[in-house]
Amino acid sequence: xxxxxxxxxxxxxxxxxxxxxxxxxxxxxxxxxxxxxxxxxxxxxxxxxxxxxxxxxxxxxxxxxxxxxxxxxxxxxxxxxxxxxxxxxxxxxxxxxxxxxxxxxxxxxxxxxxxxxxxxxxxxxxxxxxxxxxxxxxxxxxxxxxxxxxxxxxxxxxxxxxxxxxxxxxxxxxxxxxxxxxxxxxxxxxxxxxxxxxxxxxxxxxxxxxxxxxxxxxxxxxxxxxxxxxxxxxxxxxxxxxxxxxxxxxxxxxxxxxxxxxxxxxxxxxxxxxxxxxxxxxxxxxxxxxxxxxxxxxxxxxxxxxxxxxxxxxxxxxxxxxxxxxxxxxxxxxxxxxxxxxxxxxxxxxxxxxxxxxxxxxxxxxxxxxxx
Length: 372
Known about the structure:
Number of strands: 20
CATH topology of the largest domain: Aminopeptidase
Largest sheet: 9 strands, mixed
Strand order of the largest sheet: 1-2-4-3-7-11-9-10-12
Order of helices and strands: EEEHEHEEHHHEEEHEHEHEEEEEEEEE
Low-confidence stretches: none
Number of helices: 8
Structural class: alpha+beta
Oligomer: single chain
CATH class of the largest domain: Alpha Beta
CATH superfamily of the largest domain: Zn peptidases
């Protein structure tokens, strides 16, 4: 294993943060997988999964069983990890700018397309290698002005040329679920089986360029850009893995999740050994545009009548919001038939607050599909 330290741009004298990446196997020797944990720094299940992955990958590397390269970033957001306000961890948004740490990754698609068009040809594998080299060069040479921008550049520089990218997150209270782009679904479906994901939410350019889409969308957008002139496959499977809820931080869960990721990497050929049989699917894929947020129109004490994992019908009451002064009770109902897969862990709802999500089977929303 090789450990590499990546200093970030210092925001002030006397302050210095860094990202640390762990490298297993041999770069250029085959496929490349990239795994990072807790880009939203207060979403901690991924860090514990990374702890277990580190041990497993170390053993496999020592035994010479890793084909290609696997990069693990066990803590992907040192900025957010240090943000505490009045004893509360604020790991989703940078306090300086208010920006979500998982949005606004730089777009190098047109720049790279113009730079390499004359080098592309009829061989898909050669085109992939050419585009990857140019993309990595463009990412690493892009200017940055802030610590946050330098963090984004570092993470994208480590991942943009990977065959597989896994971004480990969690929701507030939730089932295991995944996010990926529509062109990635054929390659993601086995991962969903190995991880026992209850639902995979599919979109194509969901808005604001989150990390996972910044890695995967370059391929289908290059294919569109060149209009079929050159064969350009979907060369990156990039997935946001939602490891249940924020308090699901146990060795039992993390060890199992880490082993399931290893099983998938072995199935994909990055780890030597016999492939395991694909597990039975316990979920399915649904449009992200069909994942309906449940909002509270009023403020009050929030109590849920349904648990995550319930299959619900349109009009079914999921929760109540109770005004402690007037005793008025507001019922919050599901707008669609679907899987009640996530809910907030806060139990006082403010007016307009998103308190839960139900995954329906039909696309119903347009525009930007991700929350804040």
